[in-house]
Write a structure and sequence with these properties.
Low-confidence stretches: none
Membrane topology: Multi-pass membrane protein
Helix content: over 70%
Keywords: Cell membrane, Membrane, Transmembrane, Transmembrane helix, Transport
Number of helices: 10
Protein name: Probable membrane transporter protein
InterPro entries: TM_pro_TauE-like (IPR002781), TSUP (IPR052017)
Strand content: under 5%
Order of helices and strands: HHHHHHHHHH
Mean pLDDT: 85
Largest sheet: none
Subcellular location: Cell membrane
Oligomer: single chain
């Protein structure tokens, strides 16, 4: 990796850390960059997952005030995330790489759709809260968190968007507290998948280090000033980068 390529990966890590803390889907920034520099898709995905762990931890710490009083629900949802993330990582390693090459463009397009419709989901969540709807941690929510964990362990782009939608629609709480819970659950999925990959997969450690440093900085940036970023501009960047990634994978 050249100096300029390394700088690009570092900047992508900062962007991913910021976006993951605020919305989710930072993988749609870092993953295409690694592909552009010739890293094989599965290795790029594994290295990206490991590199983003410090960033998700940084974002969770940045939202620590919003996590007050959520210990019980985070233990239950976190258990579902851990099991799902482990299963997703197992599937990534055990399924042939050709399956990843086929499945991931579809997953990226799904992630882009989620990013685009996120404002509509947020409005639906707000309407539900105005109606005073409440719900406990039932099978529907825990099952959804588990399935999102599988997705996150396998690929992970926009798992944060999925988590915010699930928790927001099924629990009565503020958006900031939901976002804080999302950061913790994403951290659990990324961490358990990363540990699994350490013993089972080929890793590009240069990419891991650069993304780790960048995403850690981005996690703090997202927690402090990321909320002020214009949401339409942020979504536009994510969609553009995601479309580039899909096009590159399909053409290759």
């Amino acid at each position: 990796m050249t100096l300029w390529e390394g700088l690009a990966v570092l900047l992508a890590g900062i962007g991913a850390g910021t976006i993951n803390t605020v919305v989710g889907s930072g993988t749609l920034i870092t993953f295409p960059v690694l592909l552009a520099f010739g890293v094989p898709p599965v290795t790029a995905n594994v290295s990206n997952t490991i590199g983003l762990v410090p960033g998700t931890l940084s974002g969770a710490i940045g939202y620590r005030r919003e996590l007050t009083g959520q210990r019980g629900r985070l233990i239950r949802m976190g258990t579902a995330s851990l099991l799902g993330g482990l299963l997703g990582a197992y599937l990534l390693v055990k399924l042939p790489s050709a399956a990843f090459d086929t499945i991931v463009p579809v997953l990226i397009l799904l992630a882009l759709v989620l990013v685009v419709i996120q404002p509509r989901v947020a409005r639906a969540m707000a309407a539900r809260k105005r109606e005073g709807s409440t719900a406990e941690l039932g099978p529907l929510l825990l099952g959804g968190v588990f399935l999102t964990g599988i997705y996150g362990g396998y690929f992970g782009a926009a798992q944060g968007v999925l988590l915010v939608a699930l928790i927001g629609m099924l629990l009565q709480d503020s958006m900031q507290r939901i976002n804080g819970a999302k950061n913790v659950l994403a951290l659990i999925v990324n961490a358990v998948a990363a540990v699994f990959f350490l013993f089972t997969s080929e890793i590009d450690w240069t990419a891991v280090l650069l993304i780790a440093v960048g995403s850690t900085l981005g996690g703090q940036l997202g927690a402090k000033v990321g909320r002020r970023l214009p949401p339409p501009a942020l979504r536009g960047v994510i969609v553009a980068v995601g479309l580039v990634a899909v096009t590159r994978m399909l053409l290759s």
